[in-house]
Design goal:
- The complex is a heterodimer of chains A (252) and B (280).
- Chain A has 252 residues and is of the alpha/beta class.
- Chain A contains eleven helices and ten strands.
- Chain A has one domain: P-loop containing nucleotide triphosphate hydrolases (Rossmann fold, 3-Layer(aba) Sandwich).
- In chain A, helix 8 links the parallel strand 7 and strand 8.
- In chain A, 46% of the residues are buried.
- Chain B is mainly alpha-helical.
- Chain B folds into two domains: 40 residues; 228 residues, MetI-like (MetI-like fold), CATH 1.10.3720.10.
- Chain B contains twelve helices and no strands.
- The longest helix of chain B has 40 residues.
- Chain B starts with a helix and ends in a 5-residue tail after the last helix.
- The relative contact order of chain B is 0.15.
- The chains are: A alpha/beta (252), B mainly alpha (280).
- Chains A and B meet through helix 2, helix 4 and helix 7 of A and helix 7 and helix 8 of B.
């Protein structure tokens, strides 16, 4: 248990009257890559967005229950601090179009007005881009706009932007659903390297992707966490019949 | 069958020629007006014309320096007030669509946009000119109110077009709301906001009605904003209706200058939107 980074206990979330996450209890351990899968509308993205408190930004959205980062209750922490500690990568690459590649990586420092010496910033940029497997492709064009990159490169830039803040956890909301297969595989390869340093939580539609990249898989169905187990176990011998039906493609 | 296709093709060609013809016809009045103003005005413009005040009635020469300075001052003061207020209101409207306040202020903006400029003049006349006397400031206030709806709507429309993912990206990095707006949203919509501002300036620089009974007009070069002041459209109005030919010439020259102002502002807007457009 002392390895637990994120833990939810009886966690619920609503959009207005619509109960989208129901009584979820889950413990996510350090340096693991956890895939969250399930059919559309099962609440997996909402659950992810509850972890860094992005859910509550939508008008009418509410959440209740315990969500902890280590032993600290996330919902009593300052949301700004929560988002420093828990980074996020979105479905579509969203680099800041007004910033250069360099500034995009350090956007977390720049936009927050944190004063960091230039040499340290250079260091952060190189380290983050290297971790995101993008350094070699962009090291000669750091001062071009981030939007000049291809979709896959933009997504890795967004990953570098999240890494630059040295978070504990990085959330991925269907990070490859807007990418072509080659970009997808380069991002998937990244997950293997990233989990050495960070804890990754990845929402995905794609079962093969969950099987390829994750250590553990959580299966959500109509707002409930049906099953949470080692990925291998889950894909070979699921304990719940709904999981089995989903994996074998009997419903989607 | 062939004959039918032939008829159809002829119809298409006729229709196409017709709309091309109409497109040409609508540009014709504009070109004629422009050419006429340029023809009448361009001869008047020289350094003397730009740096001297109008000559006394019946005398040759003189210029429009008082009106130039006055117009720049009055429009400058209006911009100083209307631009920050307009941008902030526009940000509110784009950030909070669907709220009651946004609905009613949006409605007010639309109504404000439709208020005839002479009515704006009357209102300012009773509010400010009656108690304090004619002044450039009162003219600026009337023009600022006219600028507001344009700045507000263009800011709002520009910001509404930005994808919500941009804001989420910044928020997910722990950036507080006010910095998200000031450092991400506004810079990304900068070209659109700026072109709205320039268009609003182009719109009010030629307004005459609200200045008639606020800034009033003056024959002297004045930079005292609490007193009466000349402006380009007002100078055109007074001198064009005077009986002296020399004053007609001044009015034509001033029209030409005004036209150039508006033309340049419009071209600058086009350049800005093209050059600084941020690729999303």
């Amino acid at each position: 248990m002392e390895n637990t980074v994120v833990s939810a206990t009886n966690f619920n979330a609503w959009f207005g009257d619509n109960h989208v996450v129901k009584d979820v209890t889950i413990n996510i351990e350090k340096n693991q890559c956890v895939a969250v899968m399930g059919p559309s509308g099962c609440g997996k993205t909402t659950f992810l967005r509850c972890i860094n408190r992005m859910h509550e930004l939508i008008p009418g959205a509410t959440a209740k229950g315990s969500m902890k980062l280590y032993s600290d209750e996330i919902y009593t922490m300052n949301p700004i601090y929560v988002r420093y500690k828990i980074g996020m990568v979105f479905q579509r690459p969203n680099p800041f179009p007004n910033l250069s590649i360099y500034d995009n990586v350090i956007a977390g420092y720049k936009l927050n007005g944190l004063k960091v010496p230039k040499a340290d910033l250079d260091n952060i940029v190189q380290k983050s881009l290297t971790s995101a497997a993008l350094w070699n492709e962009v090291k000669d064009s750091l001062h071009k706009k981030g939007t000049f990159l291809s979709g896959g490169q933009q997504q890795r830039l967004c990953i570098a932007r999240a890494i630059a803040m040295e978070p504990e956890v990085i959330l991925f909301d269907e990070p490859t659903s807007a990418l072509d297969p080659i970009s997808t595989s380069s991002v998937e390869q990244l997950f293997h390297e990233l989990k050495e340093k960070y804890t990754l939580i990845i929402v995905t539609h794609n079962m093969q992707q969950a099987a390829r990249v994750s250590d553990k898989t959580a299966f959500f169905y109509v707002g409930e966490l049906v099953e949470f187990d080692d990925t291998k176990q889950m894909f070979t011998a699921p304990s719940d019949v709904r999981t089995q039906n989903y994996i074998t493609g009997r419903f989607s | 069958m062939d004959a039918r296709i032939g008829i159809r093709n002829t119809k298409s060609i006729l229709f196409k020629s017709f709309i091309i013809f109409l497109a040409f016809v609508v540009t014709l009045p504009l070109i004629i007006v422009l050419l006429y103003i340029i023809k009448q005005g361009v001869m008047q413009v020289n350094w003397h014309f730009l740096t001297h005040v109008p000559a006394p009635e019946g005398e040759k020469g003189g210029g429009i320096a008082n009106a130039l300075v006055g117009s720049l001052l009055i429009v400058g003061m209006s911009s100083l007030v209307a631009i920050p207020v307009g941008i902030l209101a526009g940000i509110y409207l784009s950030e909070n669509p669907g709220t009651k306040l946004a609905y009613y202020s949006g409605l007010c903006v639309d109504i404000l946009q439709g208020v005839p400029s002479i009515v704006m003049g009357i209102v300012v006349y009773f509010w400010i000119v009656k108690p304090f006397g004619f002044s450039a400031i009162s003219g600026s206030i009337a023009l600022a109110i006219m600028m507001l709806p344009i700045v507000i709507r263009s800011t709002e429309q520009t910001l509404l077009l930005l994808p919500p993912s941009l804001k989420e990206a910044a928020l997910s990095l722990g950036v507080p709301y006010h910095r998200v707006i000031l450092k991400v949203i506004v810079p990304c919509g900068f070209a659109g906001i700026l072109s709205g501002i320039i268009l609003s300036i182009a719109r009010i620089i030629g307004e005459t009605a609200p200045l008639l009974f606020t800034a009033l007009g003056s024959n002297y070069l004045s930079t005292n904003v609490t007193g009466a002041m000349e402006s380009l459209p007002h100078l055109i109005f007074t001198y064009a209706t005077s009986p002296y030919d020399d004053q007609h010439d001044l009015a034509w020259g001033a029209s030409f200058i005004l036209l150039m102002f508006v033309l340049i502002l419009n071209i600058v807007t086009k350049l800005i939107t093209r050059k600084w457009k941020i690729q999303l």
